[in-house]
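User: tokens in, sequence out, please.
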């Protein structure tokens, strides 16, 4: 039996620790004496008469320590310790026994018991043992928590690394898509694809090859960087990679042979990915990394394949757009032909104006894109006249002021027609502004000087020249000298002086002839 808790322990203030202790003993007097003492010391105490009842307490409650007798009917204290540790190995167990032996001591250690009290024991000594065990448990639990925290931190860092990798991957894919989406010309998409591929995989060079078919070797269509010349060995190595990818129908990553097995390789690594449009192999995108550069990874091969697939979609979409563009242009040209066919005196006027405008534009050094826009807007500049009544449009004599106001509506009507299609904004502005004057006295918006789109200023002089150089219902064509004098007098007033000078230069060179039969309306670029 334990010593008298009152007589053997001084009346000190309880520690109020709040730990929950489980006392297990088949003798009620021991449970009561130990429990009363520990309650006075500030512990929360539960009591059980045997192993099964103790296990039920462990299931229900958060136990911080268990004090149990070894010899109990039904389930021994050592078996109880093993069962408790099987459920929660952080709960320390202290055994109490009146029959100590070496064998029992060994068994307690094997069962995970942390201390061994021999009955009768001093309650103060028991509390010291209990505090030591609880401190060890606290340290053990803290250690477990720290380990779990470290593991959680490592898992979080791994997740963060994975997340950053995914974000970087998405950014790369987005740059590829947005870069290709910014290309609106079919001819430029090949160069743009090569530029994007080189950046995406960190290569020193990227080449867009087209496959001519019939077993012929891939042909280089565009390369990046553009300014850097490639030697024959480099071209051959990238061409071989392109042929390998085309032959296998999949992306490939090739490494240069080991040193000493042949002439030095131009590229240490080569990547190539086939490009198919509607299931038909069209080309190959290849990239090379020189010796000493970053070795490409599988992810780079995925980026190259993604670029090839995105480029295939862009090429196909541009081809469909061009087809739509040409069909719409042909339809609108049909309107122009029908309009001009109604008036013998203006027949082929739009074609002649386009031809003259293109000559002046070439004289002024316009870019290919600007000439393309002009070649589209020229044939359609008067399409708005389809909305003017025949009695005004085909009137054989001069128009009244009211009738002329109606005629002045045709630029707005034509611009609105294109606006409804949702295409060709630059061309729409040219059609809208081709009757504006340089001095601001034109129509429909009264724009002045640089406010007028440049190509509209250029088209205006071609339109005026052909109108004066053609027979009309109310007059015969003017003499060339008279026309040139009028154009020169209107320089800075009706017309842009720079455009007048370019027109005069082309006329003196004999490139602009009086009105004559001109080719039928053709789509730009045809």
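Assistant: Sequence out:
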């Amino acid at each position: 039996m334990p010593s008298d808790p009152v007589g053997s322990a001084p009346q000190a203030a309880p520690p109020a620790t709040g730990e929950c202790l489980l006392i297990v003993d088949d003798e009620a007097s021991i449970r009561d004496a130990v429990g009363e003492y520990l309650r006075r010391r500030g512990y929360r105490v539960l009591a059980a008469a045997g192993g099964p009842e103790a296990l039920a307490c462990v299931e229900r409650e958060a136990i911080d320590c268990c004090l149990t007798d070894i010899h109990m009917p039904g389930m021994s204290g050592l078996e109880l310790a093993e069962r408790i540790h099987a459920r929660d190995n952080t709960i320390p167990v202290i055994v109490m026994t009146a029959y100590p032996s070496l064998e029992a001591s060994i068994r307690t250690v094997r069962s995970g018991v942390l201390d061994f009290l021999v009955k009768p024991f001093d309650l103060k000594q028991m509390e010291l043992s209990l505090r030591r065990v609880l401190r060890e448990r606290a340290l053990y639990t803290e250690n477990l928590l720290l380990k779990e925290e470290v593991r959680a931190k490592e898992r979080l860092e791994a997740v963060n690394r994975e997340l950053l990798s995914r974000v970087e991957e998405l950014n790369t894919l987005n740059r590829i898509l947005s870069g290709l989406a910014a290309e609106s010309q079919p001819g430029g998409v090949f160069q743009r694809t090569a530029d994007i591929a080189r950046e995406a995989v960190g290569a020193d060079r990227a080449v867009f090859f087209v496959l001519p078919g019939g077993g012929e070797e891939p042909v280089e269509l565009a390369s990046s960087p553009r300014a850097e010349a490639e030697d024959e060995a480099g071209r051959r190595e990238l061409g071989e990679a392109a042929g390998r990818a085309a032959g296998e129908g999949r992306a490939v990553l090739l490494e240069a042979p080991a040193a000493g097995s042949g002439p030095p390789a131009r590229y240490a690594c080569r990547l190539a990915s086939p490009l198919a449009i509607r299931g038909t192999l069209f080309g190959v995108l290849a990239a090379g990394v020189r010796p000493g550069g970053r070795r490409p990874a599988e992810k780079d091969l995925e980026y190259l394949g993604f670029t090839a697939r995105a480029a295939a979609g862009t090429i196909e979409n541009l081809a469909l757009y061009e087809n739509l563009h040409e069909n719409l242009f042909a339809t609108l040209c049909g309107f122009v032909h029908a309009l001009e066919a109604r008036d013998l005196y203006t027949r082929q006027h739009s074609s002649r104006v386009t031809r003259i405008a293109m000559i002046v534009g070439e004289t002024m050094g316009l870019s290919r894109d600007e000439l393309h826009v002009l070649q589209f807007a020229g044939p359609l500049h008067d399409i708005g006249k389809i909305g003017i009544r025949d009695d005004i449009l085909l009137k054989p004599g001069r128009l009244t002021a009211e009738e002329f106001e109606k005629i002045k509506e045709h630029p707005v009507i034509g611009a609105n027609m294109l606006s409804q299609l949702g295409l060709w904004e630059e061309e729409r502005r040219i059609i809208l502004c081709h009757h504006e004057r340089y001095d601001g006295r034109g129509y429909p918006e009264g724009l002045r000087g640089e406010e007028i789109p440049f190509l509209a200023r250029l088209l205006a002089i071609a339109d005026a020249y052909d109108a004066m150089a053609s027979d009309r219902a109310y007059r015969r064509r003017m003499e060339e000298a008279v026309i040139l004098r009028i154009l020169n007098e209107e320089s800075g007033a009706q017309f842009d002086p720079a455009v007048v000078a370019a027109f005069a230069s082309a006329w003196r060179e004999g490139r602009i002839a009086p009105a004559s039969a001109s080719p039928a309306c053709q789509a730009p670029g045809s």
